Amino acid sequence: KVGWYNAVLQPAFHLPYPDDTLAFVVLSTPSMFDKALKPFVNKERLKIIRDPVDQCISHHLSRVKEKFPDQRVDIMFDYEMLPSRKPKFLAQTAAHVAGAAYYYQRKDVKLDPWEKKKIFGVCIHPKYGGWFAIRALLLFPDIQVPFLEQPSPVDCVSTEEKRIELLEQFNFHWQDGRYRDIIEVKERYSEEQKAYFATPPAERLRLLGLSQEAQ
């Protein structure tokens, strides 16, 4: 429910919907790369003009929207900004309140070792660890669900030591991706997918066999 999200944030970040409005947080799992992105790129080869992943997600969610012709469906993407340069929604907070992934933050550590350093939080999924992404929010403004019970996210990094290790790795060594394996995971990105996301965005088109000329 939108109200779960708004309840934990300052008013400046509130979503402009009634508290009982139904919303879905959309995650992409490791298999998205082979099952969705590569087929999309092969099919839409000449229409890829921005980021292939963003366009692929947008394509699939517009198809979801078509399944509800009689409903208003609002879609917010994780990369979208308001004119104020604030994100349209805070993806990790949304995932946490929806019970999809646990958002580990500095406040989850009792004996904080970082003093004045800025420490960013990170979501961990009980099945995929850090090998997933939060892509979008689907909102159904005409559907009110006062009866919906809030699920708690799975606290899968439950010890103080592990939480410190997670936040250390995410904040100071994020490039090596070790934080993603803070728990034992059921599935992770393939080597090809790791290479794709490790490549600067401007060069990713070449990896997918797309030329800059086509762009």
Helix content: 25-40%
Head-to-tail CA distance between termini: 39 Å
Beta strands, count:
5
- Enumerate the strands of the largest sheet in spatial order, edge to edge or round the barrel: 1-5-2
What portion of residues belong to β-strands? Answer: 5-15%
Strand and helix order: HEHHEHEEEHHH
> Number of helix segments?
7
Regions with little confidence, pLDDT below 50 for 5+ residues: none
Described by its quaternary structure, the protein is: single chain
What structural class do helix, strand and pairing data support?
alpha+beta
Number of domains: 1
Work out the radius of gyration: 19 Å
Keywords: Cobalamin, Cobalt, Cytoplasm, FAD, Flavoprotein, FMN, NADP, Oxidoreductase
EC number: 1.16.1.6, 2.5.1.151
Main location: cytoplasm
Family: Belongs to the MMACHC family.
Overview features:
215 residues; alpha+beta; 3-stranded antiparallel sheet; two-stranded antiparallel ribbon; 5 strands; 32% helix; Cyanocobalamin reductase / alkylcobalamin dealkylase; FAD
Quick rundown:
The protein is α+β, with helices and mostly antiparallel strands. The protein is 32% helix and 14% strand.
Structure explained in plain terms:
By secondary structure, the chain is of the alpha+beta class. The chain has one domain. 32% of the residues lie in helices and 14% in strands. The protein contains seven helices and five strands; from the N terminus they run αβααβαβββααα. A three-stranded antiparallel β-sheet has the order 1-5-2, with helices on both faces. Helix 2 (32-43) crosses helix 3. The longest helix has 15 residues, at 52-66. InterPro entries: MMACHC.
